[in-house]
Amino acid sequence: MKPYKILCSIFLVLILTNTTEIIAQTKYDPKNLLDATKFLSKHTPTYLKTRIKNCNKDSLKDLVPPWNYTNKYYVIANWTITNKNTRFQRYFSNINVTSRQDQASLILQVFKNFLNNKPLDIENIIKQFQNDRKQWHYKDSSKLTADSIEGIYIPSNLNDCFTQLDRFWSDSLKNVIRNMSESKFTAGEHLNSGMWIRNNWGLHRGSRLTKFFNNIGVSNAEGISGIIITSYYRYLKGINIDLAYQISNYSYYNGVTVYPPESTYPEGITHSSYYGTMHFNRKNNEFEPIYFWRNPKTKSVWLSHYFFGWVDTKQEEFEIKKNLSKNQLRKLFKKKHK
Asked: I need a surface site. Which of 11, 274, 308, 333 has the fewest CB within 10 A?
């Protein structure tokens, strides 16, 4: 065969392979868990099958998007978009499994049983899964104040996290971390110390640490562990942790509006007063939001920045301020809060 024909054949195989993978990741709509398992057995990459097979059942969803941002296998993420009218979503509604993370966990739990050659008694698996969920919810209220869960100390805030992580890593390992880039360290630790943090500090089932992060606008276990790891790296390097901007970045990528603390709201402003956000791209692909709030009684507009606070303006002046550049808006806040 001539060289150009060989190249064309290879190119065609690559196109067909990629096309099949794209279709597999976006088109198929299972009718139930058994159907989903059959599909996954044919289309899941080998490396991911191995991880699922050996993973603790409480951590299964951490292996796939959107909880694991390093993994690009989006099949389960696409199946568990709960506002879609698909037959798989109708199936989940019928068995009363409605949250996205519960759906992903259940799909992966059944698939894990399949990979380990365990019986696929779907009805019993669902029943046990729902019983486990009831037990977790029953224990949640006490976990939100407990200083330890199952014998493991739970940090109360971010600084306490640093204290605990300092004890885990030796001085020599800390020096190795200081010589790494931030992106390399955080990517490498997502499924190592990050997974340990999520599983042992109660980030999935609730703890006083999740309560701390929920209060500052971060509710996702992946987001919490990511902020902890990033902040610890910066802490070791002796640089600004930039927590407010990390929260802003988290809110941008997760489609969450991180409202300012209610204790700071100006008179006449509530959650319902919010009506828009402007995001500015900062360095390192982080995003800085400025929120707009309207008070219909006083006909004034407030601008809020998570870090710098609030600035008020007359409604007729708002259109002018809305068109300010990002640097001009920052200066406006800094001038107000010197």
From this structure: 11
